[in-house]
Predict the 3D structure of the following.
Amino acid sequence: MENYVIGKQIGQGAYALVFLGYSKEHDAKVALKIYYKEKIKDLQRKKSIRREIKIMKRINHPNIVKLYDVIETED
């Protein structure tokens, strides 16, 4: 996460928090969605999150949020 500066929290869901941030690599404001693995117990939900990430990686459209990076940690 050294390429990002994390700012204030701007959203929250059942499994994740969303923060305003800054990407040093892209010199741009970004939203950082951080999932907490300990809250995702259901196998179907894990599959759903992985599918969302896979789809977001492939999308490139000016009116849709661009996924720059996925960082997975051990915990």
